[in-house]
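Example 3.2
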Amino acid sequence: MSKKLRDIPVTVIKDDGEYEEIHLYSKHKKIYPRWVNGLFNRWRILFVIITQLFFYGMPWLQMNGRQALLFNITEHTFYIYGFVFLPQDFIYLTALLLASAIGLFAWTTAGGRLWCGYACPQTVYTEIFLWIEKWVEGDRMARIKLDNAPSSARKIRLKAIKHSIWIIFSLWTGFTFVGYFTPIRALWTEVTQFGLGPWETFWVFFYGFATYGNAGWMREQVCKYMCPYARFQSTMFDADTLIISYDAERGDARGSRKKGSDYKAAGLGDCIDCTVCVQVCPVGIDIRDGLQYECIGCAACIDACDEIMDKMEYPRGLIRYTTENALEHKYPERDIIKKITRPRVMMYVLLLFIIMGITVSSLVMRKPIKVNISRDRVAMVREADDGWLENSYRLQIQNTDEKAHSYTIIATGIANSRTIVEGSGQIFVEATASQDIGVRVQIEPNLAGAGGHEIHFIITATDNPTITSTEKASFIGR
């Protein structure tokens, strides 16, 4: 698209019938969020601390002599707080994804975009990067003044300090991310000895670059243009969903005034048109224009407006968490909490509990042993030295427990059968390891006619008989 075409304005008709020219490809304007104090800001700080303590600290936590939370891709094994999951446990990942999706639907229907405002990684890291920026360059007006100032030693120094801290923080974030997939203690040793592998190096820098770019440069553009949640959230909203709203009935008409003046007589509402709610918004919207898809529900505008209302000695809540129906006086705001139990939300919650109940029950009943059986395809059946018929099998025993076990194997299903296991007859398998073992089953010829006969292998841990697995196989006679 040529520059001239980008500059061509489009004429639109506004709700009041007036015409307005807009540019569809307007240049991005940097947003300088202003620091704000208040209840919701303290909640955001708390969530940042909690989420980052978990993210940066969890890889270092040890359990049963290994990393407590490790997704070991190379070994195809996931270690999650004492549980060991193998590729065939994919059903648990499916259950997790379903529970996460339904939980998000339930949460969004009831509470709007609270996830985005307080716990979304994009929001959290943008918040951290803004803290660093404020600490180095100052608050909103100082940052605007610095960016508009000509190049100088001070400007270069401040920018270099800020970006250096951003880059170091981003690389540490990338290192921690890789530490969830490669044991982080071994990874740290490789880093300190300059022996980091090519794939680990790639992902440390890739994730670090993504953090630096998304939180340091793109910021609200990720939420506006890249995040699909902002686009389909409206399908989960209804008139009883908790949203941040400006009370136009109370606030309009807007206008400046002196503190203590009779603004009602002048036909003004409580909004003094200070635009502080716009200055603190991390996505740069004016909440007074109504609910917009860009709003991430962070409530910075609520804290800012409440602070102004306190200074003017007006009641708080000109901008507040409310619902569309409450704002239209269809029920008092004290009844908002009751609307959480409406049928739509409860349906999501019921589905969530069903999925979680089935998953937890499966995990509780799950036995830490998996067995795969394959038979000798070269010789389906052969005759032993004493005339008995013999089939050969290969059993792979996977010990998914965090401790080693010894196992015994017996074959049942046909009377007077003999089970011959390679070696001593007992199989020792290390913790979270597997062992292949050859097994021969022998049966009297008169008990095994032509065709297949169902048998069962019973594999039992000698130190814990509750750990057992029964697997079906077939014995070929003649």
